[in-house]
Write a sequence for this structure.
């Protein structure tokens, strides 16, 4: 079980109106100016926006795969180690992170990709 970085980027690219921002050590992802994710190539980890309940559940269930990153604005951000997750689960988490930031009309036009 493992997801390559290229697979993660394909998941993000499949979503509507994703904007990338380049930092010196990471890439950030936003939809209409609202951040929903990060990617750190050096550690092959991603940071994804989730609900606080989902953040706590993921970290409690598999702390070797998920880490609490931070909480902000009522959301919990989770670090995901790509080596420990399968593509289907990551795709759902990426979509959920995007959905938590995207406006309603984009969400209605783009259900979870399968």
């Amino acid at each position: 079980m493992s997801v390559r970085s290229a697979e993660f980027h394909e998941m993000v690219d499949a979503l509507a109106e994703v904007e990338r921002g380049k930092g010196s050590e990471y890439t950030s992802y936003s939809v209409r100016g609202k951040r929903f994710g990060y990617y750190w190539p050096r550690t092959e980890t991603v940071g994804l926006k989730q609900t606080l309940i989902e953040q706590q559940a993921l970290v409690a269930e598999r702390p070797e795969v998920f880490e609490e990153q931070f909480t902000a604005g009522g959301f919990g951000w989770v670090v995901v180690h790509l080596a420990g997750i399968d593509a289907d689960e990551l795709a759902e988490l990426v979509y959920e992170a995007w959905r938590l930031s995207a406006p309603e009309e984009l969400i209605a036009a783009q259900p979870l990709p399968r």
Q: What stands out?
A: Helices lie at 5-13, 52-61, 87-99, 104-109. Strands lie at 18-22, 27-31, 34-40, 45-51, 66-72, 75-81. The radius of gyration is 13 Å. The longest strand covers residues 34-40.
